[in-house]
Amino acid sequence: MKTLKPFSSALVASLLLAGSAHAQSRMERAQDRHEVRQNAAQRSDDRMDVAELERVLERFDAARGRRNNAAELAAVDNRLRELLRAELAESRAETSQAKAEARKEWGESRAENRDDVRDARVEAASLAARKTIARELNSLMGARSPAQLNRKRELIVELVRLGKQEVRQDRQEQREDRKDVRDNRHR
């Protein structure tokens, strides 16, 4: 009887560990699926943001090409101001989220840790670039000289470029998340 008790304790401990590992694996898979859905929504939102910035650029170019365009340029300035406010808020949230994910998942594989840290750095750099552009665009709001309008156009084009770059990064992130889902499924 005495030899059965240590054996049964070891069996119970093994079963508990196996159950715990299985539960953790299910939680990881659920988290991975959530990230895939979240990234798909983010990518869709980023594509819409790029399309809207491209429309603003078209409106800006059309307004610049007309005479007596002060009202049209003012409308473009107002829309651009709204978009920048939303973009900065979104970029701040994405930066915070990426940093939190990098901290939260520190115990993962080295490759996943590197990906999370890289994502956080990319988001922080994107936010810094948008802030710089926003400050300069803010100083050009209402400006009408040809040089100022040229510079404003360059900055809008840079915002479009940043947006397209973010969409490409979203695609890469989505590929990584799908790989994580596959890897966790095979564990």
Automatic annotation (TrEMBL):
Residues annotated as signal peptide: 1-23
Keyword annotations from UniProtKB, A to Z: Signal
Biased composition (Basic and acidic residues): 100-117
Positions of the UniProt region annotated as Disordered: 26-45, 90-117, 167-187
Name of protein: Trichohyalin
Protein species of origin: Archangium lansingense
